[in-house]
Design brief:
mainly alpha, MetI-like fold, 0% strand, globular, disordered C terminus
Length: 578
């Protein structure tokens, strides 16, 4: 007689405290409120005849009319568009050139260069600008050496083309990453066919490779142009001293330096900037839809046959090394020198002017508070933002929620928004929300929220590629065993997503530590952060201590990224390497 099989009943899944559908709705509403919420008070403030902190008032379009009558505002727009155009052309051309060399040719050290060219995007942007000033600015060491010793005209970085050159070196990695991703996915069979027909390497690149990159080039150009119109540090440090106003610096100076600030006009200008950035983001999304028409993909991954650059291999190696030295290493060295000398001048040997007084000033006062507040914001904000983005990514890509398709756009939207707009929006939002808003406005947590919202896209672009590689059959198997959505996500998906979450935490920590744009409208005595302190103190002439504070940012950034790369296989292009 056969022994009957004895089956053990599976334990009943534990009921979630919140139904899955309610959790989906709460997550979606939370993201919408934080991302889009601050823009509603901004619109409201731009249509009032007096600031929101004054009682009374009526709706009016006078702030817009007043802004449009200001000739300085239109000059600022002209300068901004000219700067953004120069920056975009330089960054995209350089990024595509380096991506082709490092990905499609037999260039020596291509893999190492692919990592090194990302440094300007990861290092503190404000600190790098200060480094450029120390080296290439008026009276800078390299500029003076070229002018006085070699009689070679050095580029003036305090002009619009010069400022565009500085910003292009920082944003070039965006074009590089975009083009590199397209080249990795593309099959090289078309290039092989062209070479078989006798085409030279340069003609293959011009006739085949670059047309395949057309969508990536348009994508990168649109994003870089959007980011360029929002930059604040370069216009304030290089443009304002030479009476060159951009829209961002115009709004900042009208709000902070005018004898009678006009919040209505500033809000109206911020709304115009917001509309332009939104339209550019929508245009970028439409351009992304055309990519499949131009990229040749074969199988699971493209086959890559490297082009031979023949005798140009080592000269090109030297050119790229020269570029990295002058645009990345030299500004960092200049920043370190600026922090260690009594005065920055090429007329006296720097070793005769060495001092530690600038570093001693970091031990107390506003500098010490700025370091402490920035570290607290970076740690707490990175933890909270990582958790929030992980949940939102789950809802967006692993749930049946009917509004899930809007979440990716919402999560990416803040990065295309000027930080100055986010800061103004949160200023008005806190002002309108009573006691809770007052508490946020008077503490570092209000700045932390603004920083986190601005940097949500970084966590999303790291987590999404990893989540896309987690097979959905695991979810279906868990549901077949009786598990609910949250149980499946908590026990299966999130553990597999953990390496990407660690990588997102590292990147968020670095970005929150170095961010500053949104804080310039939110900071007050006691809530200072490093970036905002550097801006205000530099304007007041405290160059040496500001450089020392920037070196603290650079050092912490390098150490944290090195630890993240070693422990969590940090990959800027998304998730872990596994």
């Amino acid at each position: 007689m056969a022994t009957p099989y004895v089956t053990e009943a599976l334990p009943a899944p534990r009921r979630s405290l919140l139904p899955a559908g309610l959790l989906h709705w709460l997550t979606w509403l939370f993201v919408v409120a934080l991302v889009l919420g601050p823009f509603l008070p901004l619109l409201y403030a731009s249509l009032r005849d007096r600031p929101l902190y004054e009682a009374g008032g009526v709706f009016t379009t006078e702030p817009y009319r007043e802004l449009f009558r200001d000739r300085g505002f239109w000059e600022a727009w002209g300068n901004t568009l000219q700067f953004a155009a120069y920056t975009t052309v330089l960054a995209v051309a350089l990024g595509a050139f380096l991506a082709i060399l490092c990905t499609r040719t037999d260039l020596p050290g291509g893999g190492a260069f692919s990592r090194l060219v990302l440094l300007p995007l990861l290092l503190p942007s404000l600190g790098m600008v200060l480094g450029w000033i120390a080296v290439w600015g008026e009276g800078g060491y390299v500029r003076s050496f070229l002018d006085q010793r070699l009689h070679v005209g050095a580029p003036a970085i305090d002009t619009i083309p010069g400022m565009a050159l500085v910003e292009a070196t920082r944003l070039m990695p965006i074009a590089f990453l975009t083009c590199q991703a397209a080249l990795v996915r593309a099959d090289s069979s078309l290039e092989d066919a062209a070479r078989s027909a006798g085409a030279a390497p340069l003609r293959v690149v011009r006739s085949v490779t670059i047309p395949m990159l057309r969508p990536a080039l348009l994508n990168a150009a649109t994003l870089i142009f959007t980011l360029s119109i929002a930059v604040l540090g370069i216009p304030l440090l290089l443009g304002v001293p030479n009476n060159i106003q951009f829209v961002s610096s115009y709004l900042y100076t009208v709000w902070t330096n005018a004898s009678s600030p006009d919040p209505g006009a500033v809000s109206a200008g911020a709304m115009m900037l917001l509309v332009v950035a939104t339209l550019l983001l929508l245009l970028r999304n439409r351009l992304l839809g055309a990519e499949a028409r131009f990229v040749s993909v074969g199988g699971k991954a493209g086959r890559h046959a490297l082009l031979s650059v023949r005798g140009w291999r080592w000269p090109l190696f030297g050119v790229i090394g020269f570029y990295l030295f002058f645009t990345t290493l030299l500004p960092v060295l200049g920043l370190a020198l600026m922090s260690s000398v009594v005065v920055l001048t090429p007329l006296i040997a720097p070793w005769e002017l060495l001092t530690w007084d600038h570093w001693k000033m970091l031990d107390d006062g506003v500098f010490a508070r700025s370091i402490k507040n920035s570290v607290i914001i970076a740690i707490v904000g990175a933890v909270l933002a990582t958790a929030a983005v992980a949940l939102a990514t789950l809802v967006a890509h692993r749930s049946p929620f009917r509004l899930r398709r809007s979440l990716p756009f919402l999560l990416l939207y803040p990065r295309a928004m000027p930080g100055i707009i986010i800061g103004i929006g949160f200023f008005w939002a806190y002002l309108l929300t009573g006691a809770l808003g007052d508490w946020f406005r008077n503490s570092i947590w209000g700045i932390m929220v603004a920083f986190c919202i601005r940097n949500l896209p970084l966590a999303y672009i790291v987590m999404y590629p990893t989540m896309a590689r987690i097979g959905e059959e695991l979810d279906r198997a868990a549901r077949a065993a009786g598990a609910g959505w949250w149980t499946t996500s908590r026990r299966i998906v999130l553990p597999l997503l953990r390496p990407a979450m660690f990588a997102a935490f590292i990147l968020l920590f670095v970005e929150l530590l170095n961010d500053y744009d949104p804080a310039v409208f939110l900071v007050k005595p006691g809530t200072e952060v490093m970036g905002a302190t550097m801006l205000s103190q530099f304007v007041q002439g405290a160059v040496g201590p500001v450089a020392a504070l920037a070196m603290v940012q650079v050092a912490v950034t390098v150490v944290v990224l090195a630890i993240g790369s070693k422990l969590f296989k940090l990959n800027v292009t998304g998730g872990d390497d596994a």
